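Late entry, written up from scratch paper. The run itself happened at the end of the previous shift, but nothing got recorded in the book at the time, so transcribing now.
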Amino acid sequence: MTAFAALGITLATFGFMEFWAWFMHKYVQHGPLWFLHRSHHVRHPHPVERNDLFFLIYGAISAALFITGDNGARWWFWVGVGIAAYGTVYFFVHDVLIHGRLRFWKKSDNTYLRALNMAHKTHHKTQGRDGSAEFGLLWVSPKYLELARKRRQKLKSEKIKTGSEMGPG
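Output as recorded:
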């Protein structure tokens, strides 16, 4: 397997996982597997929720592809790398940044990350399985990007006003 082919398979898998995660979230987690995903839509004091089983399932699939992939010689090893890479990004963006399950990454001023956060908060406005919107993770609707840009500009202009009103030193 060439490095170019391995990189291509990894990146294609990573990209496909965004579509797959959206599809599974909308039609499976908010459908027949709601009994597992519901734990993610209600407040609870537990550090672990039933919804975390999905993370374990994809981790197991990725691990199986690694183990049987002959240390990178077989194409499916690189599919496993793409799934693991997506899962890692998912963990940091969704669980750490958006939901704050680990408290080391509080907030970001980055417009894209703020837009992701807004879209996810829209998704969580409903606690039931029906009526939710915004099922993806990394792809964010342009309307949220625009909202995040406007908020950022507003905050900047407020800081400038406040700073100029204070005067020198």
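The radius of gyration is 20 Å.
(Scratch paper discarded after transcription.)
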